[in-house]
Amino acid sequence: MLIGQDITVIGAGIGGLTAALALAMRGARVEVLEQAAEVTEVGAGIQVSPNGMAVLDALGVADALIARSVRGQKVTLRDGLTGKAVVEMDLTGLKAPQPWLFVHRADLVDVLHAACIGVGVEIRLNTGVETLLPVDGGVQLEMASGETLTRPLVIAADGVRSKARAVVAGEEEPAFTGQTAWRVLVPQPEAVAPEVQVFLGPGRHMVAYPLRDGRTMNVVAVKERDHWVGEGWTQQDYPETLQAAFSDFAPEAQALLADIEEVYLWGLFKRPVAQVWSLGRLALLGDAAHATLPFLAQGACMAIEDAWVLADALANAASPETGLAAYETRRIDRCRRIVAGADTNARAYHLGTPLRSGALAALKLGGKLAPKA
Ligand code: FAD
Predict the structure, then answer these.
(1) Which residues are registered as beta bridge partners of 124?
(2) What's the confidence (pLDDT) of residue 348?
(3) Minimal-distance CA residue to ligand 1 atom 51
(4) Distance CA 311, CA 329 (A)
(5) Is the beta carbon of 51 within 6 A of some atom in ligand 1?
(6) Mean pLDDT, residues 328-342 taken together
(7) Which atom of ligand 1 is nearest to the CA of 46?
(8) Which of 19, 133, 245, 250 is most buried by a 10 A CB count?
(9) Which residues have C-beta within 8 Å of that of residue 364, sequence separation ≥ 6?
């Protein structure tokens, strides 16, 4: 039922753009409403594992992304205090046809954006949605501009602070997870090995992997704290504060932070996986439905998977409502498992003794994910 169907996607993030592309490729007429003035992402890395790549390949954008990414070869979990390797996972031996990529977020969004334009998706910038109201045969949207739009089918990919979420699944504010993350891009004098290094320590861990030509290291350093008042991804912090937080870590971990200049800090928020993903002709996708801690590197990959399943479910359904219900049924258990796995890793990563910890959880789940792709 997708040929010629008008569909509105809210949000031009990774989830919204992938959904727009998947829906348009099945014949829908898609518009994307994005509150920001441009389609872009923060300056940070993201890992796209083979399950996400399988979808991106089916959507015809894998090669463009691979050309701008580093092909990951290995993940090494280390005891942060000694630097000793605890667990290694060979990313080239996953028996998946797709690579595991380290990608600059802006590159992923750029590739998806270009593909959307290529299939006729209309992207409307500076177009924030204020309120959503399911009505007979569609959804009424009150825009920040004061305009009112009525649309026949709306997919809300509006992130962890989704406005649609309360309408579909009831009021539940995003909660601070007790974890904060610094992120920093560190120039390297020469290309570094295509590996993820994870340094685990009490109440903290640090993840590092190279981007683009291997001469930029993406570093994310996570530390537990009791409360958080900031919002958004643009709050800066002093390099010295980050360095001090990891000053007892092994020399190779500290070396990653030696010459940092621009450091960002943000709080990690999430909500429980939504109990219900659609109401009438309004559905949630990506973080709006199932924001997760990033400790399995699967949040964006789940949004990418959602997009494929959504388009498939709608294309094969007798009505939008039954298509949206089928989409939820096909996705919800898997997303719950991923979110729970990331929560487990949050505890395991920050134990004082990673050798005895459950740090293997990440690798077990990673190994299972790949062959499914
Ligand atoms: P978002 O990226 O939040 O996009 C939402 C979009 O909607 C934005 O463009 C926003 O401007 C727009 N919007 C919001 N409200 C409105 C409105 N009212 N009207 C119009 N537009 C609106 N995932 C992985 O798969 N691999 C990783 O390695 C990985 N690493 C991570 C590391 C960290 C530190 C963090 C925090 C997350 C990580 N993730 C990772 C998770 C991933 O970043 C998210 O799951 C993913 O970006 C969610 O995409 P989304 O499109 O659902 O939401």
Answers:
(1) 33
(2) 82
(3) 15
(4) 14
(5) no
(6) 97
(7) 28
(8) 19
(9) none
Segment 222-237 shows an average pLDDT of 83
User: Does the beta carbon of 33 sit less than 6 angstroms from any atom of ligand 1?
Assistant: yes
What pLDDT was estimated at residue 173? 86
Supply 257's token pair. 């932070």
- Alpha-carbon gap, residue 81 to 107, rounded angstroms: 34
- Taking each continuous run of H as one helix and of E as one strand, the counts in the chain are 11, 20
Specify the amino acid at residue 92.
T
Atom of ligand 1 nearest to the CA of 220: 34
Residues 292-324: pLDDT tens digits?
999 999 999 999 999 999 999 999 999 999 999
pLDDT of residue 369: 31
Taking 90 as the threshold, does the pLDDT of residue 186 lie above it? yes
13 C-alpha to ligand 1 centroid (Å): 6
**Any atom of ligand 1 within 6 Å of the Cβ of 267:** no
Contact 32, 9 (CB under 8 A): yes
* pTM across the whole model: 0.94
> Is 209 in the active site?
yes
- Amino acid type, 165: R
